[in-house]
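Need residues for this backbone.
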């Protein structure tokens, strides 16, 4: 039996058509999509991928998916990525896998951003999952203090006892807000702190959610604004 993650990923891959430039997400759910696209490329599908992390780049290369970067395109037709939490408005927390910065750049350049999730990721309110904030290493302690005064209950993300480095060589501070009342305003406030590169709040970027709940696939489109 295939998992919910695989089911949602494979449903999303059906939107990928010949000739498209495809954003390739990061994480265990997005991995299923990259593998499926690899399979289709080997069967003759012609696409070019833009990976959202070094690990996705490696996987896509091993799958034989031709890759490009933003020196070759200013837009992406469709991106398939996962999320840590998604709400009914299709706003999200992302960055559990530390790839939020490239993921957000790719999402912002995408005509369509398909988010693939299992049922457990859908929440009534964002914030139970720790919100990642990517900061430059210089002066990270200052940002940490500011996040503390914003009731973010910050925690520097560590890997083997050392600050975990993102693909850009930055640090991640995970914020335990628990309940985020106004995600749009919080994103603005976080991005105004000097030293913050990006937050894991993805507001109005998802255009379509594909959620797998058991055997069922639920598709929700963001109403055009
Ligand atoms: C990586 C991400 C991932 O999409 C998110 O963490 C979900 O991962 P998974 O599919 O493994 O649950 O944002 O930065």
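Answer:
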């Amino acid at each position: 039996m295939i998992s919910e993650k695989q089911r949602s990923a494979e449903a999303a891959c059906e939107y990928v058509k010949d000739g498209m430039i495809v954003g390739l997400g990061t994480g265990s759910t997005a991995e299923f999509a990259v593998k499926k696209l690899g399979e289709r490329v080997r069967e003759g599908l012609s696409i070019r991928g833009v990976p959202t992390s070094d690990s996705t780049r490696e996987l896509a290369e091993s799958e034989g998916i031709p890759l490009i970067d933003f020196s070759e395109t200013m837009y992406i037709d469709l991106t398939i990525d996962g999320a840590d939490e998604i709400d009914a408005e299709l706003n999200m927390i992302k960055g559990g896998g530390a790839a939020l910065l490239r993921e957000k750049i790719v999402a912002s350049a995408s005509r369509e951003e398909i988010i693939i999730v299992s049922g457990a990721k859908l929440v009534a309110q964002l914030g139970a999952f720790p919100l990642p904030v990517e900061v430059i290493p210089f002066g990270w302690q200052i940002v940490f203090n500011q996040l503390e005064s914003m009731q973010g209950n910050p925690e520097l993300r560590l890997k083997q006892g050392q600050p975990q480095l993102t693909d850009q060589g930055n640090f991640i501070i995970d914020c335990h807000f628990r309940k985020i009342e106004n995600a749009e305003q919080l994103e603005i406030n976080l991005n105004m702190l000097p030293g913050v590169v990006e937050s894991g709040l993805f507001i109005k970027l998802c255009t379509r959610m594909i959620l797998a709940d058991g055997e069922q696939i639920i598709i929700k489109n963001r109403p055009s604004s």
